[in-house]
Amino acid sequence: VEADLTLLKTLRLKGMADMALLERALRTGAADATARLEAAVKAGYVRVLPRGATLTSMGRAALSGLESAERTRSDLSAMKRVYERFTGVNVSFKALMKDWQVRSVNGSEVPNDHLDAAYDASVVARLTEVHANLTPILKDAATLASRLTVYVARLSDALVAVQGGERTMLASPSRDSYHTVWFELHQELIELCGRSRAVEAVAGRAE
Amino acid sequence: MIGYIFDSDHPHAAYDRGLADLLGGKGASLAVMSAKLGLSVPPAFTLSIEAFHRWRREGDLAFVHGEIDAAVARLETRLHRKFGGEARPLVVSIRSGAPASMPGMMDTILDLGLNRVTAAALAREFGDQVADSAWIRFRASFAQIVGVAAPEDPRDQLNAAVVAVFSSCDSPRAIAYRKRAGLSDEMGTAATVQSMVFGTAPGFSGTGVAFTRDPSNGDSHPVGDWLPNAQGEDVVSGSHRSLPLPVLATQSPAVWHELERAFRTLEAWFQDMCDVEFTVEAGKLWILQCRVGKRSPLARIRVAVDLAEDPRFHLTREDALRGVSVEDLRAALGGDRAGVAALPIAVGLGASPGIAAGKASFTSEAAMAYADAGEPTILIRRETAPEDIPGMAAAGGILTATGGLVSHAAIVAREWCKPAVVGVETLDVAEDRARIGPIDIQPGDVVTIDGTTGRVFLGTVEAVAATSDGKVERFIGWAREISGLSEEGNSCAVLARAHANLVTMAQSREYRN
Lengths: 207, 513
Prior knowledge:
The structure holds two protein chains of two kinds.
Chain A: H1 5-14, H2 19-26, H3 30-42, E1 46-49, E2 52-55, H4 57-73, H5 76-101, E3 102-105, E4 108-111, H6 117-144, H7 149-163, H8 168-171, H9 178-192, H10 197-202
Antiparallel strand pairs in A: 1-2, 3-4
Chain B: E1 5-7, H1 17-36, E2 44-47, H2 49-58, H3 65-79, E3 92-97, E4 109-112, H4 116-126, H5 128-146, H6 154-168, H7 172-181, E5 190-195, E6 206-211, E7 223-228, H8 232-237, E8 243-244, H9 246-251, H10 253-270, E9 274-281, E10 284-292, H11 297-309, H12 317-322, H13 326-335, E11 346-347, E12 349-352, E13 355-361, H14 364-372, E14 377-381, H15 389-394, E15 397-400, H16 408-415, E16 420-422, E17 427-429, E18 434-436, E19 439-441, E20 446-450, E21 455-458, H17 470-483, H18 491-512
Parallel strand pairs in B: 13-14, 14-15, 15-16
Antiparallel strand pairs in B: 1-2, 2-5, 3-4, 3-5, 6-7, 6-9, 7-8, 9-10, 11-21, 12-16, 13-20, 17-18, 18-19, 20-21
């Protein structure tokens, strides 16, 4: 049986995921997600712990092989150009995330209490703009690695939820929030370029 | 017939706000402790606020002289002492007490009743030193407060002191204060006369101050100072070396047992943590004073949670939420700085405020294993990837070598209100260990991080890591329930929303009624 790149990669990116989280990331329906998870468990790539499913060392090794095969198939220099464009949008995204969480009041930084609706709306407006800037970059990335298509839907859903007033869909680390998806997409792009986050971090781009 | 004087153990129909309008704050507090709660309080009597008004109208105390004589006689009988006596003299204090706090009123006169004869008697009973210091204290305070040298006759001393109390209600300072505070000039004051007890008496004696719970962190055990062979003023003046309160428990288990019972009684009455002054005279415990105790923001949260969960208190979770301000929560989570005495081993960027201490873990798996075992842990990573999120969820704090204030790690940590220090350039992280200069950090070594200042310490720093405290977590959980906000989001914002919802709920209840 061919190992399931998308499933293994999703689990690696999340570290650990319960069924609900996995379903939302794969977006192929509950039955499909369950069947694929079961197959991966059977193959010895994944084990299911009380907190959720996680890769075994065999699963990690299998994934690593699939990843280098994927990189060989794709246009590496085109992917690197896509990544450069992404890092530009990333800076604006990170800045708006900080402004969402922290406000400067009389010179000192305090947690945003989210009681100022106009302020929050201005941050959401910036998010809409960032999303618009990301969309063509993400489309180009998806033509280079079709797996990435799912990020379009995941990000749009999170954006719609935030615009609809569901505030935790902007940053909640335990939901498929805009930041959670962005963080994973960022990691995908780094790895598709054959780089490591450690190197990117030192170069100041992993931020 | 209702007179102008009430003994401290006189039973009242109700022990509410109205009692302070009759007896003043001090007199009402003594009546509660003595008549209502049955605590051992030095016997006292209070000249009511009515007495003040009649004195002001008539310019004379003659109308109440008979009642004062009778009240003094009752003290004498109860204590087997004699006012002005040549043996076992009765010695009293006298204090003002308005229905509302009023700075500018006169200070306390202590040891009233002393003269050449009674001071000598006191010296025979308690020793020269006790008598000498009481004598000096009395003459100085009387001369300063009443404005004349103390007369020889104790009964004349008492009259002059009562007049001084009443007069101080119309002192320029008191009038100015009432004007500023919008209080009526007709408010008046009471005067309370209380028998003195001596923490310097022969035998097992001393004085102390205690909080029924720890005011620094809210731990539910009493803390305070115990001064063997000392008088109340010594506590404040710091002239005696004080011992920690538990010493009293070993020196006299019987006194300690009675004191603990008094703590429980007082907490049940005040429905709050208390600040209690007491004296032991020759093995007998006397409760002198009790107030609701001042406390730190962290203690405010933890005490509120304890009281809401304790069936002896009729406080609800909503009461707990109402009693804690957003500023308190912010201070408890982030305002406290890790102890200045400890030297940090490294300094990075404080990315998410608060202090956290725990065993070092270098992988998500290790962090989750500590969390499953109920042990606090700090997740240490060179940089964080999305796959570290489960480990960050399990950890009490996050420490990274790279990254800035807008890094993904910082965003996640802030979202969870977990302390985080990022960008510690001197931190060298390997697979299962880390190094900071010459210092090796192995898995399980205890590390403390201060996400406010960015400092990193080896070991536990003398500060409570509020963010990994179960009581604080429960408090935030209650706030989430009332706020209607889901499992995530900034704790301070959640509390602010909970407060707003509580107001709305109260208004709609009022509307329905």
